[in-house]
Design brief:
Helices cover 37% and strands 22% of the residues. The strands form six sheets. Strands 14-15-16-13-12-18-19 form a seven-stranded mixed beta sheet, sandwiched between helices. A six-stranded mixed beta sheet has the order 9-8-7-10-11-21, with helices on both faces. Strands 5-6-22 form a three-stranded antiparallel beta sheet, with no helix packed on it. The chain has 14 helices and 22 strands. The model has no long low-confidence stretch (mean pLDDT 97). It is of the alpha/beta class and 494 residues long. Helix 12 links the parallel strand 15 and strand 16. The structure holds adenosine-5'-diphosphate. Adenosine-5'-diphosphate (ADP) binds next to helix 7 and helix 8. Its EC number is 1.2.1.24. It holds the Pfam family Aldedh. It comes from Porphyridium purpureum. Belongs to the aldehyde dehydrogenase family.
Length: 494
Protein backbone atom coordinates (compact mmCIF):
# COMPACT_ATOMS: atom_id res chain seq x y z
CA UNK A 1 0.00 0.00 0.00
CA UNK A 2 1.31 3.49 -0.82
CA UNK A 3 -0.95 5.08 1.84
CA UNK A 4 -0.91 8.30 -0.13
CA UNK A 5 2.79 8.95 0.48
CA UNK A 6 4.99 10.76 -2.04
CA UNK A 7 7.67 8.15 -1.37
CA UNK A 8 5.78 4.85 -1.06
CA UNK A 9 9.03 2.97 -0.37
CA UNK A 10 8.94 4.34 3.19
CA UNK A 11 6.21 1.77 3.95
CA UNK A 12 8.00 -1.44 4.93
CA UNK A 13 6.86 -5.08 5.15
CA UNK A 14 8.41 -6.08 8.48
CA UNK A 15 11.39 -6.02 10.84
CA UNK A 16 14.75 -4.61 9.76
CA UNK A 17 17.47 -7.06 10.76
CA UNK A 18 21.10 -6.71 9.64
CA UNK A 19 20.06 -4.29 6.90
CA UNK A 20 17.28 -6.46 5.41
CA UNK A 21 13.53 -6.27 5.80
CA UNK A 22 11.52 -9.34 6.75
CA UNK A 23 8.37 -9.81 4.72
CA UNK A 24 5.26 -11.95 4.92
CA UNK A 25 5.87 -15.30 3.24
CA UNK A 26 9.45 -14.31 2.60
CA UNK A 27 11.51 -16.43 4.94
CA UNK A 28 11.63 -20.23 5.08
CA UNK A 29 7.98 -20.84 4.29
CA UNK A 30 7.16 -22.04 7.79
CA UNK A 31 3.97 -20.84 9.44
CA UNK A 32 4.56 -17.29 10.55
CA UNK A 33 2.66 -14.68 12.48
CA UNK A 34 1.54 -11.43 10.92
CA UNK A 35 0.53 -8.09 12.29
CA UNK A 36 -2.11 -5.76 10.85
CA UNK A 37 -1.65 -2.04 11.54
CA UNK A 38 -4.95 -0.14 11.61
CA UNK A 39 -6.00 3.48 11.40
CA UNK A 40 -7.66 4.36 14.74
CA UNK A 41 -9.85 6.97 13.00
CA UNK A 42 -11.48 4.47 10.64
CA UNK A 43 -10.38 1.00 11.81
CA UNK A 44 -9.19 0.40 8.21
CA UNK A 45 -6.17 -1.85 7.73
CA UNK A 46 -3.10 0.15 6.68
CA UNK A 47 -0.50 -2.57 6.25
CA UNK A 48 0.05 -6.25 7.05
CA UNK A 49 3.52 -6.84 8.44
CA UNK A 50 5.68 -9.85 9.13
CA UNK A 51 5.79 -10.40 12.89
CA UNK A 52 9.18 -11.11 14.48
CA UNK A 53 9.74 -14.29 16.46
CA UNK A 54 12.12 -14.76 19.35
CA UNK A 55 14.61 -16.24 16.89
CA UNK A 56 14.42 -13.00 14.88
CA UNK A 57 15.18 -11.12 18.07
CA UNK A 58 18.33 -13.20 18.59
CA UNK A 59 19.41 -12.50 15.00
CA UNK A 60 18.81 -8.76 15.46
CA UNK A 61 20.83 -8.72 18.69
CA UNK A 62 23.69 -10.61 17.04
CA UNK A 63 23.72 -8.26 14.07
CA UNK A 64 23.69 -5.26 16.42
CA UNK A 65 26.58 -6.78 18.32
CA UNK A 66 28.61 -7.24 15.14
CA UNK A 67 27.87 -3.64 14.13
CA UNK A 68 28.78 -2.42 17.62
CA UNK A 69 32.22 -4.02 17.44
CA UNK A 70 32.93 -1.71 14.47
CA UNK A 71 30.93 1.37 15.42
CA UNK A 72 32.46 1.70 18.89
CA UNK A 73 35.71 2.64 17.15
CA UNK A 74 34.10 5.30 14.94
CA UNK A 75 35.42 8.82 15.39
CA UNK A 76 33.07 11.31 17.04
CA UNK A 77 33.00 13.25 13.76
CA UNK A 78 31.73 10.14 11.92
CA UNK A 79 28.91 9.79 14.43
CA UNK A 80 28.13 13.48 14.02
CA UNK A 81 28.07 13.13 10.22
CA UNK A 82 25.80 10.07 10.23
CA UNK A 83 23.31 11.70 12.60
CA UNK A 84 23.28 14.94 10.61
CA UNK A 85 22.65 13.02 7.39
CA UNK A 86 19.83 11.11 9.11
CA UNK A 87 18.35 14.42 10.31
CA UNK A 88 18.51 15.79 6.76
CA UNK A 89 16.66 12.71 5.47
CA UNK A 90 13.98 13.18 8.12
CA UNK A 91 13.62 16.87 7.23
CA UNK A 92 13.38 15.96 3.56
CA UNK A 93 10.56 13.47 4.18
CA UNK A 94 8.72 15.22 6.99
CA UNK A 95 5.37 15.37 5.21
CA UNK A 96 5.33 11.66 4.45
CA UNK A 97 6.44 10.84 8.00
CA UNK A 98 3.71 13.06 9.46
CA UNK A 99 1.07 11.46 7.26
CA UNK A 100 2.18 7.97 8.27
CA UNK A 101 2.16 9.02 11.91
CA UNK A 102 -1.39 10.39 11.70
CA UNK A 103 -2.56 7.30 9.86
CA UNK A 104 -1.33 4.85 12.49
CA UNK A 105 -1.61 6.95 15.66
CA UNK A 106 -4.58 9.25 14.92
CA UNK A 107 -3.22 12.60 16.09
CA UNK A 108 -4.11 15.60 13.89
CA UNK A 109 -1.70 16.11 10.98
CA UNK A 110 -0.41 19.46 12.28
CA UNK A 111 0.47 17.80 15.59
CA UNK A 112 2.09 14.89 13.77
CA UNK A 113 4.26 17.27 11.76
CA UNK A 114 5.16 18.98 15.04
CA UNK A 115 6.19 15.62 16.47
CA UNK A 116 8.41 14.81 13.46
CA UNK A 117 10.21 18.14 13.92
CA UNK A 118 10.43 17.71 17.67
CA UNK A 119 11.67 14.14 17.19
CA UNK A 120 14.28 15.30 14.71
CA UNK A 121 15.49 17.89 17.22
CA UNK A 122 16.86 14.93 19.23
CA UNK A 123 18.78 13.63 16.22
CA UNK A 124 20.30 17.08 15.67
CA UNK A 125 20.99 17.60 19.37
CA UNK A 126 22.76 14.26 19.79
CA UNK A 127 24.79 14.81 16.61
CA UNK A 128 26.23 17.81 18.45
CA UNK A 129 26.68 15.85 21.68
CA UNK A 130 28.56 13.05 19.90
CA UNK A 131 31.59 15.33 19.60
CA UNK A 132 31.40 16.41 23.25
CA UNK A 133 31.86 13.14 25.10
CA UNK A 134 34.40 14.48 27.57
CA UNK A 135 36.27 12.55 30.25
CA UNK A 136 38.61 13.57 33.11
CA UNK A 137 42.33 13.63 33.74
CA UNK A 138 43.95 13.94 37.17
CA UNK A 139 47.44 14.02 38.58
CA UNK A 140 47.14 11.48 41.38
CA UNK A 141 50.75 11.46 42.66
CA UNK A 142 54.08 12.63 41.26
CA UNK A 143 54.34 9.51 39.16
CA UNK A 144 50.75 8.49 38.54
CA UNK A 145 47.87 9.90 36.56
CA UNK A 146 44.21 9.06 36.61
CA UNK A 147 42.04 9.05 33.52
CA UNK A 148 38.29 8.70 33.35
CA UNK A 149 37.24 7.77 29.84
CA UNK A 150 33.75 7.30 28.49
CA UNK A 151 32.86 4.32 26.37
CA UNK A 152 29.64 3.13 24.72
CA UNK A 153 27.75 0.74 26.99
CA UNK A 154 27.25 -1.84 24.20
CA UNK A 155 24.20 -3.09 22.35
CA UNK A 156 21.20 -1.04 23.45
CA UNK A 157 17.62 -2.29 23.25
CA UNK A 158 14.90 0.36 22.97
CA UNK A 159 11.24 -0.45 23.61
CA UNK A 160 8.90 2.40 22.70
CA UNK A 161 5.18 3.23 23.02
CA UNK A 162 2.53 4.25 20.47
CA UNK A 163 1.77 7.76 21.73
CA UNK A 164 4.85 9.36 20.14
CA UNK A 165 5.79 6.94 17.32
CA UNK A 166 8.62 9.22 16.13
CA UNK A 167 9.94 11.18 19.10
CA UNK A 168 10.24 8.24 21.50
CA UNK A 169 12.31 6.44 18.86
CA UNK A 170 14.73 9.29 18.07
CA UNK A 171 15.11 10.17 21.74
CA UNK A 172 16.64 6.71 22.34
CA UNK A 173 18.26 5.78 19.02
CA UNK A 174 20.06 9.09 18.41
CA UNK A 175 21.93 9.18 21.75
CA UNK A 176 22.77 5.48 21.42
CA UNK A 177 24.37 6.02 18.00
CA UNK A 178 26.06 9.21 19.24
CA UNK A 179 27.63 7.28 22.12
CA UNK A 180 28.94 4.51 19.82
CA UNK A 181 26.29 1.89 20.58
CA UNK A 182 24.26 -0.22 18.14
CA UNK A 183 20.51 -0.50 18.66
CA UNK A 184 17.68 -3.01 18.52
CA UNK A 185 14.42 -1.10 18.59
CA UNK A 186 11.08 -2.68 19.36
CA UNK A 187 8.40 -0.11 18.57
CA UNK A 188 4.83 -0.51 19.81
CA UNK A 189 2.88 -3.01 17.72
CA UNK A 190 0.16 -0.38 17.19
CA UNK A 191 2.53 2.11 15.50
CA UNK A 192 5.49 0.36 13.84
CA UNK A 193 5.24 2.11 10.45
CA UNK A 194 6.79 5.42 11.51
CA UNK A 195 9.63 3.56 13.26
CA UNK A 196 10.37 1.49 10.15
CA UNK A 197 10.33 4.62 7.97
CA UNK A 198 12.79 6.30 10.36
CA UNK A 199 15.08 3.27 10.18
CA UNK A 200 14.85 3.30 6.38
CA UNK A 201 15.92 6.94 6.38
CA UNK A 202 18.88 6.11 8.67
CA UNK A 203 19.83 3.37 6.20
CA UNK A 204 19.68 5.88 3.33
CA UNK A 205 21.81 8.22 5.43
CA UNK A 206 24.50 5.53 5.47
CA UNK A 207 23.93 3.69 8.76
CA UNK A 208 25.91 0.45 8.52
CA UNK A 209 23.87 -2.79 8.45
CA UNK A 210 23.00 -3.89 11.97
CA UNK A 211 23.62 -0.51 13.61
CA UNK A 212 19.88 0.19 13.83
CA UNK A 213 17.61 -2.88 13.79
CA UNK A 214 13.84 -2.79 14.22
CA UNK A 215 11.77 -5.69 15.54
CA UNK A 216 8.08 -5.54 14.75
CA UNK A 217 6.19 -8.10 16.82
CA UNK A 218 2.46 -8.75 17.09
CA UNK A 219 2.80 -9.78 20.72
CA UNK A 220 5.70 -8.12 22.51
CA UNK A 221 6.40 -10.59 25.31
CA UNK A 222 8.74 -13.13 23.69
CA UNK A 223 10.79 -10.53 21.85
CA UNK A 224 10.81 -8.30 24.93
CA UNK A 225 12.04 -11.12 27.14
CA UNK A 226 14.87 -11.91 24.71
CA UNK A 227 15.93 -8.26 24.62
CA UNK A 228 15.96 -8.11 28.43
CA UNK A 229 17.77 -11.40 29.08
CA UNK A 230 20.22 -11.87 26.18
CA UNK A 231 23.71 -11.25 27.58
CA UNK A 232 24.84 -9.38 24.44
CA UNK A 233 22.36 -6.59 25.25
CA UNK A 234 23.97 -4.28 27.82
CA UNK A 235 21.32 -1.60 28.09
CA UNK A 236 17.54 -1.47 27.95
CA UNK A 237 15.72 1.82 27.53
CA UNK A 238 11.96 1.64 27.88
CA UNK A 239 9.10 4.11 27.63
CA UNK A 240 5.67 2.77 28.52
CA UNK A 241 3.48 1.75 31.41
CA UNK A 242 4.71 1.14 34.96
CA UNK A 243 3.56 -2.53 35.16
CA UNK A 244 5.43 -3.43 31.95
CA UNK A 245 8.47 -1.45 33.16
CA UNK A 246 8.54 -3.51 36.36
CA UNK A 247 8.40 -6.72 34.34
CA UNK A 248 11.30 -5.61 32.14
CA UNK A 249 13.34 -4.56 35.20
CA UNK A 250 12.94 -7.98 36.74
CA UNK A 251 14.04 -9.66 33.50
CA UNK A 252 17.00 -7.26 33.23
CA UNK A 253 18.18 -8.19 36.71
CA UNK A 254 19.24 -11.65 35.50
CA UNK A 255 22.19 -10.18 33.59
CA UNK A 256 22.44 -6.88 35.52
CA UNK A 257 21.71 -4.61 32.55
CA UNK A 258 21.78 -0.86 32.64
CA UNK A 259 18.21 0.41 32.39
CA UNK A 260 16.36 3.64 31.71
CA UNK A 261 12.66 3.65 32.46
CA UNK A 262 10.21 6.35 31.40
CA UNK A 263 7.01 5.10 32.99
CA UNK A 264 3.56 6.37 33.89
CA UNK A 265 2.72 9.82 35.17
CA UNK A 266 -0.15 11.37 37.11
CA UNK A 267 0.73 15.03 36.63
CA UNK A 268 -0.59 17.61 39.10
CA UNK A 269 -1.49 20.96 37.54
CA UNK A 270 -1.70 23.55 40.31
CA UNK A 271 -3.32 26.96 39.89
CA UNK A 272 -2.84 29.35 42.83
CA UNK A 273 -5.18 32.29 43.38
CA UNK A 274 -2.58 34.89 42.35
CA UNK A 275 -1.96 33.23 38.95
CA UNK A 276 -2.71 34.81 35.60
CA UNK A 277 -5.79 32.70 34.86
CA UNK A 278 -5.67 33.19 31.10
CA UNK A 279 -2.08 31.93 31.04
CA UNK A 280 -3.06 28.90 33.13
CA UNK A 281 -6.09 28.12 30.93
CA UNK A 282 -4.06 28.37 27.72
CA UNK A 283 -1.34 26.16 29.21
CA UNK A 284 -3.89 23.58 30.34
CA UNK A 285 -5.44 23.38 26.87
CA UNK A 286 -2.03 22.79 25.32
CA UNK A 287 -0.93 20.34 28.00
CA UNK A 288 -4.11 18.34 28.59
CA UNK A 289 -5.39 17.92 25.04
CA UNK A 290 -2.20 17.32 23.06
CA UNK A 291 -2.41 13.88 21.47
CA UNK A 292 -5.98 13.71 22.85
CA UNK A 293 -4.63 13.51 26.39
CA UNK A 294 -2.49 10.47 25.64
CA UNK A 295 0.86 11.67 26.98
CA UNK A 296 2.67 10.77 30.18
CA UNK A 297 3.11 14.49 31.01
CA UNK A 298 -0.57 15.39 30.56
CA UNK A 299 -2.28 16.96 33.58
CA UNK A 300 -4.24 14.20 35.31
CA UNK A 301 -5.17 16.14 38.45
CA UNK A 302 -6.00 19.82 38.04
CA UNK A 303 -5.91 21.56 41.43
CA UNK A 304 -7.35 25.09 41.51
CA UNK A 305 -7.39 27.32 44.57
CA UNK A 306 -10.87 28.20 45.80
CA UNK A 307 -10.83 31.93 45.06
CA UNK A 308 -10.32 31.37 41.32
CA UNK A 309 -12.04 27.99 40.95
CA UNK A 310 -15.28 29.11 39.25
CA UNK A 311 -13.51 31.50 36.88
CA UNK A 312 -10.99 28.83 35.86
CA UNK A 313 -13.65 26.12 35.34
CA UNK A 314 -15.76 28.48 33.23
CA UNK A 315 -12.86 29.54 31.00
CA UNK A 316 -11.65 25.96 30.43
CA UNK A 317 -15.20 24.85 29.64
CA UNK A 318 -15.54 27.53 26.94
CA UNK A 319 -12.26 26.46 25.33
CA UNK A 320 -13.16 22.77 25.36
CA UNK A 321 -16.48 23.49 23.63
CA UNK A 322 -14.43 25.09 20.82
CA UNK A 323 -12.39 21.92 20.16
CA UNK A 324 -13.45 19.74 17.23
CA UNK A 325 -13.16 15.95 17.31
CA UNK A 326 -12.49 14.14 14.04
CA UNK A 327 -10.15 12.30 11.69
CA UNK A 328 -6.64 13.74 12.04
CA UNK A 329 -6.28 14.04 8.27
CA UNK A 330 -9.26 16.46 8.12
CA UNK A 331 -7.93 19.96 8.60
CA UNK A 332 -10.64 21.20 10.95
CA UNK A 333 -10.05 18.43 13.52
CA UNK A 334 -8.22 19.57 16.63
CA UNK A 335 -8.66 16.26 18.51
CA UNK A 336 -8.12 12.90 16.82
CA UNK A 337 -9.34 9.46 17.88
CA UNK A 338 -7.93 7.61 20.89
CA UNK A 339 -5.57 4.77 20.03
CA UNK A 340 -8.05 1.89 20.46
CA UNK A 341 -11.32 0.73 21.96
CA UNK A 342 -9.72 -0.01 25.34
CA UNK A 343 -8.57 3.61 25.61
CA UNK A 344 -12.12 4.85 24.92
CA UNK A 345 -13.52 2.41 27.48
CA UNK A 346 -11.07 3.62 30.13
CA UNK A 347 -11.91 7.31 29.54
CA UNK A 348 -15.64 6.51 29.74
CA UNK A 349 -15.10 4.51 32.92
CA UNK A 350 -13.23 7.40 34.56
CA UNK A 351 -16.00 9.85 33.68
CA UNK A 352 -18.77 7.52 34.90
CA UNK A 353 -16.91 6.81 38.13
CA UNK A 354 -16.43 10.54 38.76
CA UNK A 355 -20.09 11.33 38.01
CA UNK A 356 -21.25 8.58 40.35
CA UNK A 357 -19.14 10.15 43.11
CA UNK A 358 -20.50 13.67 42.60
CA UNK A 359 -18.53 15.32 39.78
CA UNK A 360 -20.40 17.25 37.06
CA UNK A 361 -19.63 17.44 33.35
CA UNK A 362 -19.56 21.14 32.46
CA UNK A 363 -18.35 20.92 28.86
CA UNK A 364 -17.99 18.44 26.05
CA UNK A 365 -16.31 19.00 22.67
CA UNK A 366 -18.38 18.52 19.50
CA UNK A 367 -17.72 16.04 16.68
CA UNK A 368 -16.75 17.05 13.17
CA UNK A 369 -19.07 14.67 11.35
CA UNK A 370 -20.73 12.24 13.77
CA UNK A 371 -21.97 9.81 11.13
CA UNK A 372 -18.53 9.24 9.60
CA UNK A 373 -16.93 8.77 12.96
CA UNK A 374 -18.85 5.66 13.98
CA UNK A 375 -16.07 3.28 12.93
CA UNK A 376 -13.23 5.10 14.75
CA UNK A 377 -12.16 5.17 18.40
CA UNK A 378 -13.44 8.64 19.20
CA UNK A 379 -14.07 10.17 22.60
CA UNK A 380 -15.29 13.74 23.10
CA UNK A 381 -13.04 15.75 25.47
CA UNK A 382 -14.79 16.82 28.64
CA UNK A 383 -14.37 18.98 31.73
CA UNK A 384 -15.41 17.70 35.17
CA UNK A 385 -15.96 20.04 38.12
CA UNK A 386 -16.13 19.09 41.81
CA UNK A 387 -13.61 16.28 41.41
CA UNK A 388 -12.47 14.63 44.67
CA UNK A 389 -9.67 12.35 45.85
CA UNK A 390 -12.02 9.35 46.00
CA UNK A 391 -12.45 9.33 42.22
CA UNK A 392 -10.32 7.22 39.85
CA UNK A 393 -9.26 10.38 37.99
CA UNK A 394 -7.26 11.36 41.09
CA UNK A 395 -5.17 8.20 41.37
CA UNK A 396 -5.25 6.39 37.98
CA UNK A 397 -3.64 7.71 34.81
CA UNK A 398 -6.59 8.45 32.49
CA UNK A 399 -4.53 8.81 29.28
CA UNK A 400 -7.46 10.50 27.58
CA UNK A 401 -9.02 13.96 27.15
CA UNK A 402 -10.81 14.15 30.50
CA UNK A 403 -10.05 17.27 32.58
CA UNK A 404 -11.06 16.78 36.25
CA UNK A 405 -10.81 19.98 38.31
CA UNK A 406 -10.26 19.71 42.09
CA UNK A 407 -10.60 22.62 44.56
CA UNK A 408 -8.04 23.29 47.32
CA UNK A 409 -7.58 25.89 50.08
CA UNK A 410 -3.89 26.19 51.05
CA UNK A 411 -0.42 25.76 49.59
CA UNK A 412 0.48 23.11 52.20
CA UNK A 413 -2.67 21.15 51.40
CA UNK A 414 -2.09 21.11 47.64
CA UNK A 415 1.56 20.11 48.00
CA UNK A 416 0.60 17.17 50.19
CA UNK A 417 -2.15 16.05 47.79
CA UNK A 418 0.09 16.41 44.75
CA UNK A 419 2.81 14.31 46.41
CA UNK A 420 0.42 11.62 47.69
CA UNK A 421 1.09 9.45 44.66
CA UNK A 422 3.54 6.70 43.75
CA UNK A 423 4.17 8.57 40.46
CA UNK A 424 6.41 11.57 39.92
CA UNK A 425 7.05 12.59 36.33
CA UNK A 426 5.90 16.17 35.68
CA UNK A 427 3.99 18.86 37.58
CA UNK A 428 2.75 22.31 36.62
CA UNK A 429 2.46 25.35 38.80
CA UNK A 430 0.74 28.68 38.13
CA UNK A 431 1.53 31.59 40.43
CA UNK A 432 3.32 34.93 40.20
CA UNK A 433 4.75 34.76 43.71
CA UNK A 434 8.46 33.91 43.76
CA UNK A 435 8.21 32.41 47.24
CA UNK A 436 5.47 30.01 46.14
CA UNK A 437 7.37 29.18 42.96
CA UNK A 438 10.47 28.29 44.96
CA UNK A 439 8.74 26.34 47.75
CA UNK A 440 6.43 24.36 45.50
CA UNK A 441 8.83 23.61 42.63
CA UNK A 442 11.40 22.38 45.16
CA UNK A 443 8.79 20.50 47.21
CA UNK A 444 7.03 18.63 44.41
CA UNK A 445 8.23 15.02 44.16
CA UNK A 446 8.76 14.74 40.41
CA UNK A 447 11.39 15.06 37.69
CA UNK A 448 10.00 18.05 35.77
CA UNK A 449 8.15 21.20 36.87
CA UNK A 450 6.56 23.65 34.43
CA UNK A 451 6.09 27.06 36.08
CA UNK A 452 3.49 29.19 34.27
CA UNK A 453 4.11 26.82 31.39
CA UNK A 454 2.32 23.67 30.19
CA UNK A 455 4.61 22.43 27.39
CA UNK A 456 7.91 21.31 28.89
CA UNK A 457 9.45 18.84 26.42
CA UNK A 458 12.65 20.09 24.83
CA UNK A 459 15.55 18.15 23.29
CA UNK A 460 17.98 20.40 25.18
CA UNK A 461 16.55 19.52 28.59
CA UNK A 462 16.60 16.33 30.71
CA UNK A 463 13.31 14.44 30.66
CA UNK A 464 12.62 11.78 33.28
CA UNK A 465 10.75 10.95 36.45
CA UNK A 466 11.21 9.84 40.05
CA UNK A 467 9.46 7.22 42.20
CA UNK A 468 7.46 4.76 40.06
CA UNK A 469 7.65 7.09 37.07
CA UNK A 470 11.09 5.70 36.41
CA UNK A 471 14.79 6.50 36.23
CA UNK A 472 17.29 7.90 33.80
CA UNK A 473 17.22 11.09 31.73
CA UNK A 474 16.56 11.57 28.04
CA UNK A 475 17.63 14.73 26.26
CA UNK A 476 19.96 17.51 27.24
CA UNK A 477 23.62 16.97 28.02
CA UNK A 478 22.52 14.21 30.40
CA UNK A 479 20.91 12.14 27.62
CA UNK A 480 24.20 10.62 26.49
CA UNK A 481 25.04 9.41 30.01
CA UNK A 482 22.50 6.60 29.83
CA UNK A 483 24.42 5.07 26.89
CA UNK A 484 27.98 5.45 28.19
CA UNK A 485 30.07 3.94 30.92
CA UNK A 486 32.89 5.74 32.69
CA UNK A 487 36.08 3.76 32.97
CA UNK A 488 38.81 4.75 35.44
CA UNK A 489 42.35 4.09 34.24
CA UNK A 490 45.30 4.60 36.62
CA UNK A 491 48.69 5.02 34.98
CA UNK A 492 51.54 4.51 37.45
CA UNK A 493 55.35 4.28 37.47
CA UNK A 494 55.59 7.30 35.16
P1 LIG B 1 1.03 1.60 26.77
O1 LIG B 1 0.16 1.66 27.97
O2 LIG B 1 1.63 2.90 26.37
O3 LIG B 1 0.49 0.79 25.63
P2 LIG B 1 2.86 -0.54 27.27
O4 LIG B 1 3.77 -0.52 28.42
O5 LIG B 1 1.83 -1.59 27.19
O6 LIG B 1 2.29 0.91 27.30
O7 LIG B 1 3.65 -0.59 25.90
C1 LIG B 1 4.86 0.11 25.68
C2 LIG B 1 5.80 -0.79 24.92
O8 LIG B 1 6.05 -1.95 25.70
C3 LIG B 1 5.28 -1.29 23.58
O9 LIG B 1 6.38 -1.34 22.67
C4 LIG B 1 4.81 -2.69 23.91
O10 LIG B 1 4.86 -3.54 22.80
C5 LIG B 1 5.83 -3.10 24.93
N1 LIG B 1 5.38 -4.19 25.82
C6 LIG B 1 4.16 -4.36 26.35
N2 LIG B 1 4.12 -5.48 27.10
C7 LIG B 1 5.36 -6.03 27.03
C8 LIG B 1 5.98 -7.19 27.60
N3 LIG B 1 5.31 -8.03 28.39
N4 LIG B 1 7.27 -7.42 27.30
C9 LIG B 1 7.97 -6.57 26.52
N5 LIG B 1 7.46 -5.47 25.97
C10 LIG B 1 6.18 -5.20 26.22
Amino acid sequence: ASLGLEDASLVKPGSLIAGRYACVGGADGSAEETLVVRNPATSAALQTLHSASRRDAVRAIESAHAAFLQWRHSAPSERYDLLQRWAAQIDGHEKDLARLLTLENGKPYAEALGEIRYGNAYVKWFAEEAVRMYGDHTMNTRDSRGLVIRQPVGVAAAITPWNFPCAMVTRKVAPAIAAGCAVVLKPAELTPLTALALAELAKRAGAPDGLFNVLVAASPKAVGEELCTNPLVRKVSFTGSTPVGKQLLSWCSSTVKRTSMELGGLAAFIVMDDACIDTAVAALMQNKFRNAGQTCVCANRIYVQQGVYDEFVHKVAEKVKALVVGDGLVETSSIGPLINAAAVAKANDHVRDAEAKGAKIVARAPFNAPAELASGHFFAPCVLRDATDEMKVSFEETFGPVAPIFAFRTEEEVLARANASPFGLSSYLFTRDIGRITRLSEGLECGIVGVNQGAISDARMPFGGVKESGMGKEGGRYGLEDYTIRKYILIGAL
